[in-house]
Amino acid sequence: MDKLRDKEQRQVVFLSEDLKSLCRLTRGAERKPVGITTRPSSYCSFKNRTNSNNSLDLLNLAGSVDVDESKKTSRFQEAWLWRSLKVPMSIKAGGRGGGATCLSCKESCSGFQPHTWRKSCVACGCSTADHATPGGHLEDDQRMGRLLADSPCSHLSAKVKGGGGLRMYKRNRMIVTNPVVSRKDPTFSTTTYDWAPAGLNQKLAMQYMELLPESRRPVSGTPGALERRRQLLTQLPVYDQDPMKCQSLSSEEEISSMILFVKRYKEEVLGVGEVGLPGEGGALREAAIQRTAKEDAAQHQDHVPSAVNGTDDKTQHRCTGCHGELAEDRPVVYAERAGYHDAQWHPTCFVCSECSQGLVDLVYFWSNQKLLCGRHYCQSAWPRCSGCDELIFCKNFLTGTDGRTWHQEHYCCWKCGQSLDSPCQHSE
Q1: What is the reported pLDDT for 21?
Q2: Is the sign of the CA dihedral 268, 274, 279, 285 positive or negative?
Q3: Where are the alpha helices (DSSP H) in 157-268?
Q4: Distance CA 332, CA 277 (A)
Q5: How does pLDDT run across 285-314, given as a tens digit for each residue?
Q6: Could you say which of 58, 171, 178, 317 is the most buried, measured as most Cβ atoms within 10 Å of its Cβ?
Q7: Which residues have a Cβ under 8 Å from the Cβ of 201 and sit 6 or more positions away?
Q8: What range(s) does the LIM zinc-binding domain occupy (predicted)?
């Protein structure tokens, strides 16, 4: 333990004075939890907390703080810093308690009150994702940009100018304007989709949206848009991709294991579905080859199937999910990892094979010939703590009689902290 403390102290030497102040401020804030909002900026800004609606703004702590070039911290040091802060995730105000109202408990929740280390609300016990609020696109796009970086899908993100390597998700929004004839003066109705498949004309994109149930259509200001944001937090938790957002990594060995794990799944497993018509897989494959500029492009080109010219047999147009026939004039979803010719899905069949939820923004993880969401792929490779919801990269952890896994220090009641081996008054 002494060696561990010395190592942590050495990390602090490299921090700027502003960042040291941030550490002191946030550690003090543990006694009075505050929210965090991230922005793609290269500076830190603070607001004094004068009422329940004010919050501490931490603007892009992960790598954008101004420090002396000769004293920049390594990724290990940044991760150690984030772990030491232990600040809860950002949920904006909205409920009676100053936080967002729970989407599951509705009015019975007094408002989101973050637990110190669980990803849940102290008031109602539901998850952070259940307290998602409309908006938050900037934070979501930054998180998605980080996920897609250094992967074959990096073309869906872009570097932020002056952001120190920060990448933002190039989220494709769609605005549909329809004329409404009212008496002599025509008017227009506008519908905005918070997200739509990239690379499509509006007609095909609208056909895709119409094939989704209304509850999943991300129209701005509707339950469908809120459900999309909820799924982003659930299927692609930030603490599954960035060690700096984890609170339970206790050694450099664990941090290193996570960094290597994330690097591997970005290179080998992560993908984003593409929408087209049945039989267009060959053309999509050609575009992927040109986009990635791989050295073996010529070899792939020699094996492009007849789908390139759309002449393949209609009987081959079957959904990989339900095995039903695919109409040639209806959009389908392709997954590059699965192969453009052999696999295509109805939009409603492009789901995680574990939870059966539609894959948000078509982000998938291809493993053992199956589609998975990020959450279920990650916990198929590493155990997930049932207490803090983070992946467990240490060797010593507990497994309950029900098969659930726990960090040793998190094997306790979420209300009183008593070990689960000793039933307490909160036990069901």
Answers
A1: 42
A2: negative
A3: 202-211, 223-235, 252-268
A4: 6
A5: 777 777 665 534 444 444 444 334 444 544
A6: 58
A7: none
A8: 317-383
How far, in Å, are 1, 66, 170, 225, 347 from residue 206 at the CA level? Answer: 59, 44, 19, 16, 12
Q: Average pLDDT for residues 66-78, to the nearest whole number? A: 43
Q: What is the pLDDT of residues 225-234, one digit of tens each?
A: 999 999 999 9
Backbone angles phi, psi at 361, to 5 degrees: 55, 25
CA distance 323 to 357: 18
Tell whether the torsion through CA atoms of 408, 413, 417 and 418 is positive or negative.
negative
pLDDT in tens, 370-387: 999 999 999 999 999 999
What are the angstrom distances between the C-alpha of 43 and each of 4, 24, 164? 30, 18, 11
CA separation (Å) from 196 to 151, 203, 261, 302? 21, 12, 30, 33
Please report which confidence band the pLDDT of residue 67 belongs to, taking 50, 70 and 90 as the band edges.
Answer: very low
**In this structure, how many other beta carbons lie within 10 angstroms of the beta carbon of residue 307?**
22
Q: Where are the domains of the chain?
A: 174-220, 274-349
Nearest to 241 by CA among 415, 331, 69, 365: 365
Residue 42 parent element (H or E):
none
The counts of H helices and E strands in the chain are: 10, 11
* Residue 136: CB atoms within 10 Å: 17
Q: How far apart are CA 73 and CA 78, in angstroms?
A: 6
- For the chain, how far is it from start to end, CA to CA, in angstroms? 37
Distance CA 291, CA 285 (A): 10
| Residue 326, number of CB atoms within 10 A of its CB | 22
> H/E element holding 144?
helix 137-148
Q: Using the predicted structure, report yes or no on whether residue 197 has a pLDDT greater than 70.
A: yes
269, 366 in Cβ contact below 8 A? yes
Token look-up 């409920």 returns: 95
Residue 28's CB is within 10 A of a number of other CB atoms, namely 9
- Radius of gyration over alpha carbons of the chain, in Å? 24
Buried b / exposed e over 34-58, threshold 16 CB at 10 Å, is bbbbbebbbebeeeeeeeeeebbbb
Helix (H), strand (E) at residue 407? strand 405-407
DSSP-assigned letter for residue 199? T
